[in-house]
Design a protein that fits this description.
By secondary structure, the chain is mostly helical. The protein has 10 helices and no strands. The chain folds into 2 domains: about 300 residues, Formate dehydrogenase/DMSO reductase domain (Formate dehydrogenase/DMSO reductase fold, Up-down Bundle); about 35 residues. Keywords: Membrane, Transmembrane, Transmembrane helix.
């Protein structure tokens, strides 16, 4: 049950995180290239929302990860404690920078590039630190490096999967960010330059998806041989889920090329779901020699789970209602 909620809540977090980081990168590049303010202005008004949802929806999967893999994530977090604790400050700075970019968009045109650039760069740093922790927890054999560096500044830089895994998430965020902008434009019938913004977002989505597939194969071949082969016929369930993920990714690319926004969105959500499952399977394969979640002793406590489900449903409902109010008030269209 905990594994199910780990994947579910991680998918929700991932969708908002990708929309947030990808949109920030898009806006930064548009500002650098001196593009007209339309796409950047639209992005500026969405960033505070997406950051808030990203942070809040990131709590649950982290807690479920600690429940299932506590002895691994705690150790890796301690090994890079200095960087891990810095994430809090980096996110606060990111939030402030995004708010300044939004609320001072018209008043500080000369500083827009700086603040959206700062937002994007801080987001990239946070993502890099998370990738380090999530990979370091999978390599207990490297933890002895602590005895040579007890300062809490260890990073997993020698791991061959670190960079392809990191880029796999970053390029995916650009794809989802482009799709997010296209979806918002599609939903607003009276938006100025509506078709241009739809095409602009879908173009980002399509190009990034092509790159994402290539980076995904790099990530695959960077895995240890036994882990990689488990997704290439060595393990039937792993292989089937991996192939399904590739299939829906290809479908989303086709929809992107043909500019079919809503079908591309559905295919992308399915792709994120399958890839989140694959990510969990990769973690399981890495840790198989020393641990499996089924090794944990289960003491059923249903009341906390019921409370969690109630709060989760209420929270998602309140989030949807808040977005509805924001849209109705016209704040997002300012």
């Amino acid at each position: 049950m905990a594994l199910f909620f780990l994947v579910l809540t991680f998918v929700l977090h991932l969708l908002f995180m990708n929309a947030m980081l990808g949109s920030a990168i898009m806006a930064f590049i548009c500002e650098l290239r001196g593009k007209k303010a339309g796409p950047s202005k639209d992005i500026s008004t969405k960033l505070p929302y997406t950051i808030a949802f990203t942070v809040n929806l990131g709590v649950a999967p982290l807690l479920f990860l600690q429940v299932l893999y506590g002895q691994f994530i705690y150790v890796s977090s301690v090994l890079m404690a200095g960087f891990w604790l810095a994430v809090i400050g980096l996110i606060i700075m990111l939030y402030y920078s995004a708010y300044i970019y939004d609320f001072r968009f018209e008043k500080m045109p000369g500083a827009r590039t700086f603040f959206i650039g700062l937002t994007a760069i801080l987001g990239l740093i946070v993502a890099f630190l998370f990738t380090n922790n999530m990979t370091l927890m999978l390599r207990p054999e490297t933890w002895q490096e602590y005895f040579g560096n007890r300062s809490g500044t260890l990073l997993n830089l020698n791991d061959p999967t670190l960079w392809p895994r990191y880029l796999h998430f970053i390029v995916a965020s650009i794809a989802v960010g482009g799709l997010f902008q296209a979806v918002l434009a599609k939903m607003r019938k009276t938006l100025p330059d509506r078709q241009y913004k739809i095409d602009h977002g879908m173009r980002w989505f399509t190009i990034a998806t092509v790159v994402q597939i290539l980076v995904g194969f790099w990530f695959l071949i960077s895995l240890p041989r036994e882990v990689m082969l488990s997704f290439m016929g060595g393990d039937a369930p792993n292989t089937v889920i991996f192939i399904l993920g590739l299939a829906v990714a290809a479908v989303s690319l086709i929809f992107g090329i043909t500019r079919r926004v809503l079908p591309a969105t559905a295919a992308t959500i399915a792709t994120v779901l399958f890839m989140a499952i694959v990510r969990d399977l990769v973690r399981t394969e890495f840790l198989k020699p020393v641990f499996h979640p089924s090794d944990l002793k289960v003491a059923a406590q249903y009341s906390p789970m019921i409370v969690f489900l109630i709060v989760l449903v209420l929270g998602l409902g309140i989030m949807a209602y808040m977005l509805h109010l924001a849209a109705d008030s016209g704040k997002e269209a300012k």
